[in-house]
């Protein structure tokens, strides 16, 4: 289908302003024009369809042979009951391979057409950016999913009708299909984003490793969960995949811009420009000449951009704290024995020993540990759209909730428990929330960059904001909280214990 044919099916852009304000039905209808054109081109290209076709047919046969060998191994070693845990593994792998190989279709959606010089006519059609992006995404998703579903169906039928006589539950089949679909959508939408933001297929293929490798590790994790028969956890993974897919799709639709795509000739590293953007956000403008002005004109105004991520971090902390308390009540086998606190004199002796260890080494350890956790959460947050920043900040609160709900707390006394936490936490918790909020914004800003700014420019600005908040607020607060935790909190605990 030629570009002229695509254009001829659409009315002129100026017909009653139809393309300025259109419904979702019209948007989908226009996007499907691009999708049909892309699918025709893909299905006519034997270089694309032959690998998908061969993988769809050959890999299930290979997996079936491997299953036969594994079945004989289990039977010969008296582990036949474990077959029910092993058999669901390969359907996920069979469904994953066609998607991973077919990722080249998604990677070439935009940058491939640009290199073939067929992108300019397409972008000149009276289609909106969203319609173009939707059409390309649909076209990149359908072939891999068809190959994945066909391969899984062939393999599962071979297990059902073969010598294994496997009889899986309907819930298990639905779970495998949904997980494969979620992984495929995440990989494809991520690849489309990469294709729309790079200038060559070589760069797009290299960046695809950041999509394939994490997804491969996720498949391994799902396999481990399947073997341990904790399959309810897979529903949570599927929910996370849906959230990731929605974020990737929203990010791609928002940052896709046809003018920028046509005007960008080559990606190049401009460290001088990047340094200027970072320093401008870190310093806060030419009016800043001293430390007081830096805090007043640069650091403090940044907090208005951290309100939403700080609220999310705070809610996550509270939710995991409550979750830890509930877990302590449900899992009575993990509760600490009350007998460990019956000897009050021994408890006082242990607390005095802990107090004597509260020297400079303890201060450096506590401060270093807090800084390492926040830095690690920031780095991981950049690669997870801020999700891991929230997780790392909130995870210790699940442990606190677990300890707080222990029956041993009744013997120790809730007041003693609070005395051991509250003095330094008054400063430490706000510092963690602020640091995690800045890290979350740094990771999430690429999904919704401010209007008028590119993704790279917006991220550099957020990096400058994170750095000044971390240096100007978080580190000083963590220093103070570490001093309190080492030199003040033990005295308060001893006083609460009557020592």
Describe the structure.
This protein has 499 residues and is mainly α. It has 24 helices and no strands. It has helices at 3-8, 24-44, 46-76, 83-86, 89-101, 103-107, 111-115, 119-123, 129-161, 170-197, 201-207, 209-227, 232-255, 258-263, 271-283, 291-302, 307-330, 344-356, 360-382, 387-404, 408-412, 414-444, 455-487, 489-496. The longest helix is centred in the N-terminal third of the chain and has 33 residues, at 129-161. The protein is flat, with a radius of gyration of 28 Å. The termini are far apart.
The overall pLDDT average reads 76
Helix proportion range: over 70%
Radius of gyration: 28 Å
Please give the alpha-carbon distance between the first and last residues.
85 Å
Unreliable stretches? 1-20
- Count of extended strands: 0
Shape: flat
Number of helices: 24
Q: Major beta sheet, specifics?
A: none
Strand content: under 5%
Structural class comes to mainly alpha
Order of helices and strands: HHHHHHHHHHHHHHHHHHHHHHHH
Keywords:
mainly alpha; disordered N terminus; 78% helix; 0% strand; 499 residues; 24 helices
